[in-house]
């Protein structure tokens, strides 16, 4: 119960941050030249001033910046994200259509990076200064230093063009109407390369953090005591070392949630995934302010939710957080 109370307190404390992010993004977008109406008029090949004035009145762009911000926050209080000028439908509808690919990509990439980062970090720490440690550390450095878009393009060339094992992009086979398990397998097949591409950089970070944390915990007194009691090395690692060594990795999940969302912009563009990242890019190009602010709002909620879950997990792993000791 105390764990839940602590997590709820931190969740409430994040709400002012959410408002500051939205207000800052709104004001920052005002510095860019042009607005939604300018983008619409350009798509229509121009138009008269009366039409432009009517459109600005319709989208609430005929008042000052402060009034626009206030009106937006008031609408947001009722969960009204506004109307997308480019897509011709409510922003909430547009985001809900694009949200599943991004959530699936983030969940798959995070699971891939966390699991293999954990395993490789443990192996490197158990074989420190030996060839497995050198090999894993070198691979981690390569993964971290290489841009994700290059990994994506090379993965497409190798696995899609040359070997023809996996699809090059998209969120499903548009030529087929799969249902049930077949549809799930089809989506999973299309997510293999994007997950691999987005997860490699984070895998490199996690394995380095896990390796360093394992080496630190292995040198502590309680580990020597466990060994002195005659426990096997496997039991010492799994029952005593691993739980304490995982704390920095769990913390890093919350810190890197926003970074992973930012990385999905590149990955979704490379693999033509219809997710929030690609939608954000399209909204910036089209100057669709309402859609872009809605994406920022939903992305901030995702990051806050992930950190909320991380706080609960962290308190379960380390009870001293709840007790305050």
Write the layout of secondary structure elements.
Layout: H1 2-13, H2 15-30, H3 36-43, H4 49-58, H5 65-77, E1 83-84, E2 89-90, H6 91-126, H7 131-145, H8 148-162, H9 181-218, H10 221-228, H11 233-245, H12 247-270, H13 276-286, H14 289-317, H15 320-323
Antiparallel strand pairs: 1-2
The proportion of strand residues reads under 5%
CATH architecture of one domain: Orthogonal Bundle
Estimated radius of gyration: 24 Å
Helical segment tally? 15
And the CATH topology of one domain? MetI-like fold
Helical content (DSSP H or I, runs of 4+):
over 70%
Distance between the termini: 17 Å
Let me know the average pLDDT: 79
Kindly describe this structure.
Keywords: Cell membrane, Membrane, Transmembrane, Transmembrane helix, Transport. Pfam families: BPD_transp_1 (PF00528). It is a multi-pass membrane protein. Residues 99-314 form the ABC transmembrane type-1 domain. It is found in: Cell membrane. The chain has a two-stranded antiparallel ribbon. Helix content is 78%, strand content 1%. It is globular. The chain has 15 helices and 2 strands. The longest helix has 38 residues, at 181-218. The chain has helices spanning 2-13, 15-30, 36-43, 49-58, 65-77, 91-126, 131-145, 148-162, 181-218, 221-228, 233-245, 247-270, 276-286, 289-317, 320-323, and strands spanning 83-84, 89-90. The mean pLDDT is 79. It has a domain at 100-276 and 300-323: Orthogonal Bundle (MetI-like fold). Strand 1 and strand 2 form a beta hairpin. It has 325 residues and is mostly helical.
